């Protein structure tokens, strides 16, 4: 028997259902007809089994974001990396063993841009014999941030790929599936959080957006951050939250203000100069007898403060791991792989002049834009020794070192190559990665997510990384444990992890447009010597690949 932990079982039925937002009703992909999808509750150490049944008209895969899947990458859910997508009419039993994760994670589709509507929370409670490292809250409430397109999201994705251009912006931000009362036809369904005076609530916040780092602020209320990315943190009192796509933040909200109604508002930290977004709102509503205000005051947001676009890395840099006896940390100190990955937006000429302006927008890591296998997946190819699917020559550093952040560089200077290259790691290797942002085009932040692992964020800064100076300031005492770290535009972030989870593990930017353009790569962690250091065998019902439409060359 491969798994012997306590069992939690769910049935996820992928199907289209009709939902109305912004005065328009349309059919969207959902799980069990819900938008957002169902919340999974489990305890640390339990095994969650999810039967995914595809009753829709599109291929799909489901990823358990932040779950390490120890020795079992087969159900990690990354299309064409660890599995072929689940075809219409097929099913796949996915197993999710919760090892040391505790807090908030989430699940989402990992095929094309299906995760725009296919996502939900994963709440991992302490074991029954354990308690929270903070006073037990009166209640806990997931808050998921998302986006809404009036158009069909898959068509938006396919049009952008075919034309080689950026995709159309979404039409609204969402809080728990609702745009809020500043959008048309939305006031009645605005998300409301009812609180009792004097009580404390654990808010589990998830940024499930495709493209935006967001602020959250609650009018006249401070909050206390106690966790991030499925791990606890030292308490941090703050008047706002900044969160990037792929990240989760747990915070305590004390209902300590005069009973009334208060805006909970999220807004994009920075948006392109040619596009302005309307903030999305929820309402914090005190229980009791009082006269509600005729109108609500909007909360004041911090100024940009000179941090570029990467407010989330500035915010998370204030957080620290608990690093105590009950929640110890172990930062790798004997680094065997020093990796330096540049993150770049690129341009590439279209072979047939079919793209807008005859050039295609791409993205790369170390000047390689990854192409997903067309009718195979990397994990199965590695496990079965199938040749011609990937190469093992992903570079440890870029071919050319120069000043990556000084001045404005044309997109055309950042030429890229195509490939399906992986980087090989021996079992128990200790890895350091410095992600270096670059100033090609307009530059951008990049929330980088690694499957199969959490990592310690030991440093971050602005400008080019200095290998002689910057490591002297690394935090090796209580660094934050994360699975998604933002790399600032024109700056860098450094992470460390121990490669003790054998398998095939995807790393990519969690801005979906950047991932689509090629900002992604794969680690293969080899088996160790002992039986419990080896990858487990595949399940019997692995999905089979179906050839994709030829126009979808740059597929997630």
UniProtKB/TrEMBL annotation:
Binds 4 Cu cations per monomer. One of its GO terms (cellular component) is apoplast. Pfam families: Cu-oxidase, Cu-oxidase_2, Cu-oxidase_3. It comes from Salvia miltiorrhiza. It is an enzyme of class 1 (oxidoreductase). Residues 14-128, 141-288, 393-528 form the Plastocyanin-like domain. The keyword DNA-binding does not apply. This is Laccase. Belongs to the multicopper oxidase family. Keywords: Apoplast, Copper, Glycoprotein, Lignin degradation, Metal-binding, Oxidoreductase, Repeat, Secreted. Its cofactor is Cu cation. Coiled coil: none annotated. Its EC number is 1.10.3.2. GO terms for molecular function: copper ion binding; hydroquinone:oxygen oxidoreductase activity. It catalyses: 4 hydroquinone + O2 = 4 benzosemiquinone + 2 H2O. It is found in: Secreted, Extracellular space, Apoplast. InterPro entries: Cu-oxidase-like_N, Cu-oxidase_2nd, Cu-oxidase_C, Cu-oxidase_fam, Cu_oxidase_CS, Cu_oxidase_Cu_BS, Cupredoxin, CuRO_1_LCC. Lignin degradation and detoxification of lignin-derived products. One of its GO terms (biological process) is lignin catabolic process. It comes from the Eukaryota. The keyword Transmembrane helix does not apply.
């Amino acid at each position: 028997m491969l798994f012997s932990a306590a069992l939690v079982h769910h049935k996820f039925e992928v199907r289209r259902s009709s939902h109305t937002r912004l005065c328009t009703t349309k059919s969207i992909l959902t799980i069990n007809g819900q938008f957002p999808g169902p919340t999974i509750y489990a305890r640390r150490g339990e095994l969650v089994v999810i039967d995914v049944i595809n009753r829709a008209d599109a291929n799909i895969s489901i990823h358990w974001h932040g779950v390490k899947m120890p020795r079992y990458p087969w159900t990690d859910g990354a299309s064409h990396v660890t599995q072929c997508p689940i075809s219409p009419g097929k099913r796949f039993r996915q197993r999710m063993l919760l090892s040391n994760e505790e807090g908030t994670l989430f699940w989402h589709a990992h095929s094309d841009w299906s995760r725009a509507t296919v996502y939900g929370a994963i709440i991992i409670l302490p074991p029954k014999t354990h308690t929270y490292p903070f006073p037990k809250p009166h209640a806990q409430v997931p808050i998921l941030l998302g986006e809404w397109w009036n158009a069909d999201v898959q068509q938006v994705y396919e049009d952008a790929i075919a034309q080689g251009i950026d995709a159309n912006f979404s039409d609204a931000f969402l809080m728990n599936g609702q745009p809020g009362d500043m959008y048309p036809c939305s006031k009645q369904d605005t998300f409301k959080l009812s609180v009792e005076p004097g009580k404390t609530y654990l808010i589990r916040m998830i940024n499930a957006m495709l493209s935006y780092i967001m602020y959250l602020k609650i009018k006249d209320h401070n909050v206390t951050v106690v966790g991030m990315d499925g791990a606890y943190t030292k308490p941090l009192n703050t008047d706002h939250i900044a969160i990037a796509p792929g990240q989760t933040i747990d915070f305590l909200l004390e209902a300590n203000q005069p009973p009334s109604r208060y805006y909970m508002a999220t807004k994009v930290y920075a948006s392109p100069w040619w596009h302005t977004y309307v903030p999305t709102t929820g309402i914090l509503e005190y229980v009791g007898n009082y006269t509600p205000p005729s109108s609500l005051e909007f909360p004041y947001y911090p100024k940009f403060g000179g941090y570029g676009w990467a407010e989330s890395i500035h915010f998370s840099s204030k957080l620290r791991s608990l690093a105590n006896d009950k929640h110890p940390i172990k930062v790798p100190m004997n680094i065997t792989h020093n990796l330096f990955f540049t993150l770049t937006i690129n341009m590439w000429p279209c072979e047939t002049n079919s793209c807008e302006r005859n050039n295609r927008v791409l993205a790369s890591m170390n000047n390689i834009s990854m192409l997903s296998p067309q009718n195979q997946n990397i994990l199965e190819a590695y496990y079965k020794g199938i040749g011609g699917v990937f190469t093992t020559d992903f570079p440890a550093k870029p071919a050319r070192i120069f000043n990556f952040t000084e001045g404005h560089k044309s997109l055309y200077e950042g030429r890229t190559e195509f490939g399906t290259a992986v980087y090989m790691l021996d079992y128990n290797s200790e890895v350091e990665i410095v992600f270096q942002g670059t100033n090609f085009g307009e530059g951008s932040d990049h929330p980088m997510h690694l499957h199969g692992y959490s990592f310690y964020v030991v440093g971050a800064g602005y400008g080019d990384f200095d290998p002689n100076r910057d490591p002297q300031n690394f935090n090796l005492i209580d660094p934050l444990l994360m699975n998604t770290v933002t790399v600032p535009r024109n700056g860098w972030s450094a992470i460390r992890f121990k490669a003790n989870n054998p398998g095939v593990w995807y790393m990519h930017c969690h801005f979906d447009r950047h991932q689509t353009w090629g900002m992604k790569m794969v680690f293969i962690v080899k088996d160790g010597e002992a039986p419990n250091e080896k990858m487990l065998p595949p399940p019997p019902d692995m999905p089979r690949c179906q050839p994709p439409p030829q126009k979808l060359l740059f597929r997630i």
